[in-house]
Write a structure and sequence with these properties.
Helix content: 25-40%
Strand order of the largest sheet: 1-4-7-8-9
Shape: globular
Number of strands: 11
Strand content: 25-35%
CATH class of one domain: Alpha Beta
CATH topology of one domain: Phenylalanyl-tRNA Synthetase, Chain B, domain 3
Radius of gyration: 17 Å
CATH superfamily of one domain: Phenylalanyl-trna Synthetase, Chain B, domain 3
Structural class: alpha+beta
C-alpha cells in the first residue's frame, strides 16, 4: 500500500480507513452490482420508514460528522444524500462501477468517503489537520480555502481531500482509472467498528464486478 504518515497536527480520536484496489475494470455497470444497488435502495427506505430528516441526523454516525461540521458552522452533505434516497425515494446514482460502489457504502454505513486515481498520487500521503488559509482546487474546479482544524489528506502535490470540502479536482476516479485509493474519514465519536465494517462492505461490492482485483485495506491510527 502507498505509504501514509500521521502528521503531528492530526487530532486525537480521529482515524482514517484506506482501501487500495488494483486492477479494476472500466465498467459503467455490472448486473451483480446493479442488483445490490437496487436492493440497498429498498433496504434504506425500509430501514428509515416513518423517519424524517431530524431522525436521520440523530443516528450515532451522523452525530459524529455533524459535530465536526458544526465546529465550522456547516452541515454534513451526507445527510442530504441519505435523505434523498431513503426518504425521498430517489435512486442511488449509478456511474462507473468503481464510483457507484463507494456511494453505496457511504449510504449503507453512514461514512464520509472519497476515491482517488492511485496512479495520480505522489506519495507518501499525510493525514493532518488543516492550517487556516490552506487552499486546493476542489472537484468540479471549485477554489477551496480551508479553516484551521479540518481533517485533510495530502500528497506530494497538495491536498487530496478534506471533510468539509471533499476531494480534489486532479485525482478523481475516471473512465480510464484502473487502480483506486478509497479513503474514509472517521472523526472522533464515530461508533466503534463502523469504519472497519465500511471497508469490508466496500471490498465485498468491488468483488461483485472485479473478482480478480487486488484489495488491501488499512486503518490509521491502528488500535
Amino acid at each position: 500500500m502507498i505509504p501514509i504518515q500521521l502528521e503531528s497536527s492530526w487530532p486525537a480520536g480521529a482515524r482514517m480507513g484506506f482501501l487500495e484496489a488494483r486492477g479494476l475494470p472500466a465498467l459503467a455497470s455490472h448486473p451483480a452490482l446493479e442488483a445490490r444497488r437496487t436492493a440497498l435502495e429498498q433496504d434504506l427506505r425500509a430501514r428509515h420508514a416513518g423517519q424524517d430528516r431530524q431522525a436521520l441526523r440523530e443516528s450515532p454516525a451522523m452525530r459524529a460528522y455533524a459535530a465536526h461540521y458544526r465546529t465550522f458552522g456547516q452541515t454534513c452533505h451526507l445527510l442530504g444524500q441519505l435523505d434523498s434516497v431513503a426518504l425521498k425515494g430517489r435512486p442511488i446514482p449509478s456511474r462507473l462501477c468503481a464510483v457507484t460502489a463507494l456511494f453505496m457504502v457511504e449510504l449503507d454505513h453512514g461514512l464520509l468517503a472519497a476515491g482517488h486515481d492511485l496512479d495520480q498520487l505522489a506519495g507518501p500521503l499525510g493525514m493532518a489537520a488543516s492550517r487556516a488559509g490552506e487552499q486546493y482546487t476542489g472537484f468540479g474546479g471549485r477554489p477551496v480555502t480551508l479553516p484551521a482544524g479540518d481533517l485533510i489528506l495530502r500528497h506530494g502535490r497538495g491536498i487530496l481531500s478534506s471533510v468539509l470540502q471533499g476531494p480534489d479536482q486532479d485525482t478523481p476516479v475516471r473512465e480510464g482509472t484502473r487502480n483506486v485509493l478509497y479513503t474514509f474519514y472517521a472523526p472522533p465519536g464515530l461508533p466503534a467498528g463502523l469504519l472497519e465494517a465500511g471497508l469490508a462492505g466496500l471490498g465485498e461490492l468491488l468483488r461483485r464486478f472485479a473478482p480478480e482485483a487486488g484489495l488491501e485495506s488499512r486503518v490509521l491510527p491502528g488500535s
